[in-house]
Design a protein that fits this description.
The protein is mainly alpha-helical. The protein has 3 domains: 52 residues; 52 residues; 45 residues. The protein is 65% helix and 0% strand. The longest helix is centred in the C-terminal third of the chain and has 38 residues. 13% of the residues are buried.
C-alpha cells in the first residue's frame, strides 16, 4: 500500500472540491490505486476539516462497540463519517477482531514494560520473621566459610608434613 503525504492528499481533495474532476479521473491522473482512497480523504476532510490520522489516537471499548453496532445497518464509509473514525478500514479491523476473538478483542491492550510479579511472601513477612531469615542465611554462609577454612587448614598441614619428610 502506497503512503501519500498530507500535502498531496490536500492537493487532490482541493482539486476534487473545485468540481472539475471526479474520483475515478483523479485516481487515474495521479496514479492512485483506488478511487476509494480519494473518497476516504474527501470524507475525512469534509467532516474534520483536516487530513491524516492523529497519532496514538485510541478509542474506548464502549465507543468501538457502539460504532460496530451502528455499522451493522450502515456502510463503513457512512459509519466512519458519523463517528469521525478515519480511515474506515479501522472499523473493518475492529469487526475482524470481534469475529475472531469476540468483543474482548476490542479491549485496549496494556503496552510498555511489564511490572515485576508481586511476591506475596516477601511483603507479608513480619519484622521478626525477616530478621530470623537473615540470621539463618548468615548461619548457612558462616558454616560454608568454616568448612572451606577447615579444608584449607587440612591442605596446609598436609603440605607441611610432605615438606618435613
Amino acid at each position: 500500500m502506497t503512503k501519500y503525504s498530507n500535502e498531496f492528499k490536500l492537493k487532490v481533495i482541493h482539486e476534487y472540491l473545485d468540481g472539475d474532476i471526479g474520483f475515478a479521473a483523479l485516481a487515474e491522473k495521479y496514479n492512485i490505486a483506488s478511487k476509494k482512497n480519494i473518497t476516504e480523504w474527501v470524507n475525512q476532510y469534509e467532516v474534520t476539516g483536516s487530513i491524516g490520522r492523529i497519532k496514538n489516537e485510541s478509542y474506548s471499548f464502549d465507543f468501538k462497540k457502539m460504532v460496530l453496532e451502528y455499522s451493522l445497518n450502515h456502510s463503513y464509509s457512512e459509519t466512519s463519517k458519523r463517528f469521525k473514525v478515519f480511515p474506515s478500514a479501522v472499523i473493518s479491523s475492529w469487526r475482524a477482531k470481534v469475529d475472531k476473538f469476540g468483543y474482548d478483542g476490542l479491549k485496549n491492550k496494556v503496552r510498555g514494560k511489564r511490572t515485576m510479579p508481586y511476591d506475596k511472601r516477601a511483603s507479608d513477612m513480619s519484622y521478626e520473621a525477616d530478621q530470623l531469615a537473615k540470621v539463618i542465611e548468615e548461619n548457612r554462609r558462616l558454616r560454608m566459610e568454616n568448612a572451606v577454612l577447615k579444608k584449607l587448614n587440612a591442605l596446609v598441614m598436609q603440605r607441611t608434613e610432605k615438606n618435613k619428610k
